Amino acid sequence: MFAMAAAGLSPMASAQPVVGGAPMYPTRDIIDNAVNSADHTTLVAAVKAAGLVDTLKGKGPFTVFAPTNAAFAKLPAGTVDNLLKPENKGTLTAVLTYHVVPGKVLAADLVKAIQAGGGKTEITTVQGGKLTASLMGNLVMLRDAKGGMSHVRQADVVQSNGVIHVVDAVVLP
């Protein structure tokens, strides 16, 4: 967890961390693992609707801040259904790619960047926008362009083409 890295402790070594009740195999890509997580069915549906499956199955590496179903449920009523409509594909793609950072950014790397930045660091997303990462106690907190906040709840879920960090809110460009 980021919390462990922030405290200077090593994350527990696990060949197969579990996300959404499913083991996450480091030999599988982001999509092949995500489709098995019961906590990420909304994210998977959104990635399919946006046409991003092939991208996230690509070589990468990618760092994905993956919102849970509960994170999507925090959005105003009807938002997800509206985003999934074909005519809103561009907006959906922008929201999803705002959760993706090029490269493989592990928890320890992000915490070091926050500390080196005097308590915060900016991350440029694939969408082109910025996320500001900081620490709130032992949690890594992401602030989006609109001032919304998300916290990393499970970090360093390594994939064959990157890493996933599970977050508790959808960030918006």
What is the compact description of this entry?
With 173 residues, the protein is an alpha+beta fold. The chain contains 8 helices and 9 strands. It starts with a helix and ends in a 6-residue tail after the last strand.
> Roughly how much helix do the residues carry, as a percent range?
25-40%
Average predicted local confidence, pLDDT: 91
Largest sheet: 7 strands, mixed
Give the termini separation: 25 Å
Instruction: Enumerate the spans where pLDDT stays under 50 for 5 or more consecutive residues.
Output: 1-14
How many beta strands in the DSSP annotation? 9
Beta-strand level of the residues, as a percent range?
25-35%
Question: Quick one: overall form?
Answer: globular
How many H/I helical runs?
8
| Main sheet: strand order | 4-3-9-8-7-6-5
User: How many whole angstroms does the radius of gyration measure?
Assistant: 15 Å
H and E order: HEEHHHEHHHEHEEEEE
Q: Structural class of the secondary elements?
A: alpha+beta
